[in-house]
Design brief:
With 1095 residues, the protein is an alpha/beta fold. It is built from 45 helices and 23 strands. It is 50% helix and 9% strand. Strands 10, 12, 13, 16, 17, 18, 19, 22 and 23 form a 9-stranded mixed sheet that branches. Strand 7, helix 18 and strand 8 form a beta-alpha-beta unit. Helix 29 packs across helix 32. The longest helix is centred in the last third of the chain and has 32 residues. The protein is globular and about 115 Å long. The N and C termini lie far apart (65 Å).
């Protein structure tokens, strides 16, 4: 359960009789297993076992807290504090709900919740401290100063320091009728003043005005046992002590140096950054993030913040990589340079924009994913966010935009890796683009820093060495295993005797369906040790995961399947009913819907209302989709879905509602569960308490029906499980894997035999398990082996055969600096050079097989840059004279371009991916006997779909048209295509096919600019906006300007809005954009004036 860093810390704790430090992590892990499964265990032996265990934990808490307070072994204080705090946390969770009233803070005692909060701070575990602090309750405490101290400790742990600093402690009432209580309050006020001074110091508002250590020592001295003469006539002394203030002051004394060390405000200006600018960024930042975690401090100590220093960061999921990237981004911005942040998908580009907003002063991240070059200007924004594919395209078409870039942040950089060729023979085109983006950036911005982030990469040091050799600059590798959350990992298993017994009973039932449904209670297998050790069954624990008995399914061959969706739904519903946030990762979109529906049937309807912003998003969704039944939106649901068929605004609403906090009173039922496809686990920022993997395979092509399937790779399983746990809220997460094939054992022996998959992965002690495999190397090997008709391979051949502006060959620029060549060279220079030369010769031969027609140099450059055949560029150029230059609308331009680009089935699949065409058109595409004739039928459909998309039609309307088209063209079939509830075909058209059409529009824009440079003849102004208008669904340029001017989030709504003001427009296709924009502004102003006039 604990990461290696925490295990090392725990094992340095003092030994206790019968509780050696080497065994403490096992004891605490077992206690957390009990907490995770306590709801379904039965009384009796389970209850006795649990009480014995909790007694041991109580002993840990008391003993190690004493070690800290008494400073018995100073060198082990941090370890003792962590063990004591963790033990307190277990006890508090086991008794949660039993405590009534305010947190105890008296003259004689201090609540364990206060102690655990402060002990976690002493142990440098700020996230755990924040979680413990959330249990501190001041309401009901009679003494004002004690309420203030409880609140101040809570706010200190949660980083809400500005609240502490603004509090008037002198004005708080300390007087009490009882002199002892009055004295206690005075001592507690001294402690509260120390907390306040510490907060002021952390906020950078003032240096320490007094010696806080001396102040606390004074409180401790006054609180210690003392004696006073009794009145005359009574012999002896009267002893009095203040154990409560004494303990609080003692713990404060221990945490002072730790908290000060973690203060963000103490971070010195990095080399190269302007010190004044750096301090100006720090001071506002500390109000939101006053303290750094222990691994942050370790990273800063490497010097990676200095200009000229790069880093490969392979720390675990949830370890605060965002904070470390923000620090580096701020350092570069304070050096007056700009930053490019690469996120792997469009969805994550949006997420990064949200995550980084407000983090670097008044500079907000800007996505340039869909921004026109004219809108970008001469340079990229100071903090631009984009996908690697977009970065590669911009480096090819407008490298001057990167002139001032001083840092490239590459999030989830394991995307540069190809799949293992033993597992997948296909070379991932996205990996090629990602690797080329990195290589191209390093070639153009040779003095820029790099920050590569991934939790999955195992050979980070090798990547560091490659970057050092390639750039000749300082590169660090940071792989600290610490993280603020912990994962209890479990795999579903079954009692073999119960399975056999239940199978025998169901075999007697009357119907085949009943006979094949075998109810059996699932168990969870846990490991007390890190890693998978089947040879040590005494270190394994088996607990019930649910009181229900979801059925296994008997297949015709007599074998059983796990019925994973039903089991996942049952377990998720059980945890959601207890208020836990759950993410279930499913094999495909269909499974997501099935699991979510099952959970919603089991739980009460959600009663937490949407916020005003969320209601606005919901209204936009209803408008664009066309009916509430066809939407994916969370109103009233306890479980929602998250997969590739959600339109962007649906995805944002689902995530926002899932993240919404729960009020302590009032409505309590909200969206507790997200059923998501495993493909979106990568980078998904949905903090949760429980993660459930419903199977360890997924749709190979993200097909909605799940076919074909392929096994999840180890890093994909571990990445998904690593999402469990919410720093500062629920630091101990639970990850449960439901194997597709049931694991049946005898619980009394726990013998697993040869069938141990996926147990060895589930209980792996390493998150980082993916070695980067160079896709460029694999592609060169493929070229050497055989000539390929694959368009991506042919595009790479052209790129490698090209010549750069400075005279270097593409081969030397890419292959010569590739990671694959470096790795070979590290093993032996001679063999590496021989490999490179053989690939050079193979490339020459492969280039000759392409049979590209002779084209102008600029046309060849455009083709190489965009990864397309030069013939297509030449074809578009030759047809420019027939372009609909008089048309201002989007549709005529797209129709013309599609007619030019697609004349055969090969052209169609060059323009639009084959898998996308299948998921949208189904058998109307795949059943065509004459592929070329069929491609023209599909081409006509694409033109009609674009017309509807840009003409304000809802997804339901587009879906109805698509269904009729498919039924007409799917050839004679036994059963015709059926309607899809959520308009999924229309969704896939907008999500998967439109970006490909928009790419062709972007190519047209580049061709227009190149012709203008060659001939001086300007292309139609419509061309430069066409790519953006197709993606957004804009009817024309007026529509595009209106959508931006009104910040509209609805395509259909903005089209309807356009129709109300269109009569006032006169600018035609030849008008420049400023003229069009001004017409829209005038029309909006006139409408607003008219509305006021009519009031």
């Amino acid at each position: 359960m604990f990461d290696e860093s925490s295990r090392r810390l725990i094992r340095t704790a003092p030994n206790l009789p019968g509780l050696e430090a080497e065994m403490l992590d096992e004891l605490l892990t077992e206690a957390h297993i009990e907490l995770a499964t306590i709801r379904v265990e039965i009384l009796g032996e389970d209850d006795v076992r649990r009480n014995i265990l909790l007694d041991k934990v109580r002993r840990l808490a008391a003993t190690f807290e004493a070690y800290v307070a008494l400073d018995l072994q100073p060198a082990r204080t941090q370890a003792a504090a962590f063990v004591a705090a963790s033990a307190h946390q277990v006890i508090a969770s086991a008794t949660d709900g039993r405590a009534v009233g305010p947190t105890l803070l008296s003259s004689d005692a201090v609540s364990s919740n206060i102690a655990s909060t402060m002990l976690f701070l002493i142990a440098d575990r700020a996230a755990d401290a924040a979680e413990a602090a959330s249990k501190l309750i001041a309401i009901g405490e009679d003494h004002a100063i004690r309420r203030v101290l409880i609140i101040s400790i809570r706010e200190l742990a949660k980083g809400e320091l500005y609240k502490i600093s603004e509090r008037n402690l002198e004005g708080e009432w300390v007087a009490a009728d009882d002199s002892r209580q009055h004295a206690t309050n005075l001592l507690f006020r001294e402690c509260a003043q120390v907390v306040q001074s510490l907060a002021v110091e952390a906020l950078g508002e003032a240096e320490a005005l007094e010696d806080l250590e001396q102040k606390l020592v004074r409180v401790i001295s006054l609180s210690e046992p003392g004696g006073a003469e009794l009145p005359e006539g009574i012999g002896g002394l009267m002893h009095e002590q203040y154990a409560g203030p004494h303990h609080v002051a003692t713990l404060l004394l221990r945490l002072l140096p730790r908290v000060r060390q973690a203060m963000l405000v103490r971070t010195p200006a990095p080399a190269g950054a302007n010190p004044t600018t750096w301090k100006g960024w720090l001071l506002p930042q500390v109000k939101k993030r006053p303290f750094l975690w222990t691994n942050h401090l370790s990273a800063v100590a490497t010097g990676y913040l200095d200009r000229g220093a790069s880093m490969v960061m392979t720390t675990p999921t949830g370890s605060g990589k965002t904070t470390l990237s923000v620090l580096k981004i701020a350092a570069v911005l304070c050096a007056d340079e700009s930053v490019v942040y690469l996120a792997p998908t469009h969805a994550l580009v949006d997420q990064v924009e949200q995550d980084l907003a407000g983090e670097v002063g008044d500079i907000n991240p800007e996505s340039v994913e869909d921004t026109l070059l004219e809108e970008i200007g001469d340079r990229l924004p100071q903090l631009s966010v984009m996908t690697p594919e977009r970065c590669l395209a911009l480096l090819g078409s407008a490298p001057e935009l990167f002139e001032n870039v001083g840092l490239l942040v590459f999030d989830e950089f394991h995307l540069i890796s190809a799949d293992d060729s033993q597992i997948s023979p296909t070379i991932n085109s996205r990996a090629i683009d990602a690797m080329l983006a990195l290589l191209s950036f390093m070639s153009y911005r040779q003095n820029a820093d790099l920050l590569l982030l991934s939790a999955m990469v195992a050979n980070g040091k090798e990547i560091r060495n490659w970057l050092r050799a390639t750039t000749g600059r300082t590169v660090q590798c940071f792989n600290d295993p610490w993280k603020p959350t912990r994962q209890l990992r479990s795999c579903v298993i079954y009692d073999d005797h119960e399975v056999r017994s239940s199978a025998d009973e169901t075999a007697k039932l009357l119907t085949k369906k009943a006979q094949n449904s075998i109810p059996v209670q699932p168990f969870g297998l846990f490991s007390l040790l890190s890693g998978w050790h089947p040879e040590r069954p005494e270190k394994l624990a088996v607990r019930r995961l649910t009181a229900a008995s979801p059925p296994l399914t008997r297949k015709p061959n007599g074998r059983h399947t796990s019925n994973r969706n039903a089991i996942a739904a049952q377990v998720a519903a059980d945890y959601a009913a207890k208020g836990k946030r759950v993410v279930v990762f499913c094999a495909d979109a269909t499974a997501c819907g099935s699991i979510a529906d099952d959970i919603n049937d089991k739980l009460d309807t959600a009663d937490i209302a949407l916020t005003a912003d969320q209601e606005g998003m919901r209204a936009s969704i209803l408008k664009d989709v066309g009916s509430s039944e066809a939407t994916y939106e969370p109103t009233g649901l306890r479980a929602g879905v998250h997969h590739g068929d959600l339109i962007p605004i649906e995805r944002r609403l689902m995530e926002a509602v899932f993240r919404s906090s729960r009020a302590p009173d009032g409505a309590q039922f909200g969206l507790e569960v997200i059923a998501a496809t495993s493909t979106i686990a990568q980078g998904l920022n949905l903090p949760c308490d429980v993660v459930i993997l419903a199977g360890t395979d997924r749709s190979a092509q993200d097909d909605p029906g799940g076919n074909p399937r392929k096994d999840l790779l180890p890093h994909e399983i571990l990445n998904a499980m690593g999402r469990a746990g919410r720093a500062a809220y629920s630091a101990t997460g639970l990850a449960i894997v439901v194997p597709a094939n049931p694991i049946r054992i005898d619980p009394s022996t726990l013998s697993f035999g040869l069938h141990q998959n996926p147990l060895n992965i589930v209980f792996s002690d390493e998150d980082a398990c993916q070695d980067i495999i160079d896709p460029v190397e694999l592609l060169l090997d493929a070229v050497e082996a055989t000539a390929s008709s694959d368009p991506k391979t042919q595009a790479m051949i052209r790129r490698l055969s090209s010549v750069t502006i400075d005279g270097r060959s593409g081969f030397d620029d890419i292959a010569g600096r590739s990671f694959g060549y470096y790795a070979r060279k590290a093993r032996g220079t001679a063999s590496a050079d021989a490999w490179l030369q053989s690939r050079r010769l193979a490339l020459t031969a492969a280039t000759e097989t392409l049979q590209d027609p002779p084209v102008l140099p600029w046309q060849q450059t455009l083709a190489v840059r965009n990864g397309i055949p030069p013939e297509l560029v030449a074809r578009i150029v030759s047809q420019m004279s027939s372009a609909p230059n008089e048309k201002a609308e989007t549709t005529p331009w797209v129709s013309w371009l599609l007619d030019v680009c697609v004349t055969s089935s090969a052209d169609l699949t060059l323009l639009v991916r084959d898998t996308s065409l299948k998921t949208v058109f189904g058998r109307a595409y795949s059943n065509q006997v004459d592929k070329d004739a069929g491609s023209l039928i599909i081409l006509g459909a694409l033109k009609s779909l674009v017309e509807m998309w840009c003409g304000g039609k809802s997804l339901v309307e587009i879906e109805n048209w698509l269904l009729a088209f498919i039924r007409e063209h799917e050839q004679p079939v036994t059963r015709q295509a059926t309607a899809q509830k959520h308009a999924n075909r229309a969704r896939r058209f907008s999500i998967r096919i439109l970006p490909d059409i928009a790419f062709a529009c972007g190519l047209l824009s580049q061709i227009g600019k190149a012709i203008e440079l060659e001939t001086g003849i300007s292309p139609s102004p419509v061309i430069e906006m066409l790519q953006q208008m197709v993606k957004a669904g804009d009817f024309n340029r007026h529509h595009s300007c209106l959508r931006r001017e009104t910040n509209s989030t609805t395509r259909v709504g903005s089209y309807e809005d356009l129709k109300t003001i269109a009569d006032g427009f006169s600018a035609d296709a030849s008008a420049d954009l400023d003229t069009v924009h001004n017409e829209v502004r005038v029309a909006l102003a006139l409408r607003a004036f008219s509305s006021i006039k009519n009031l």
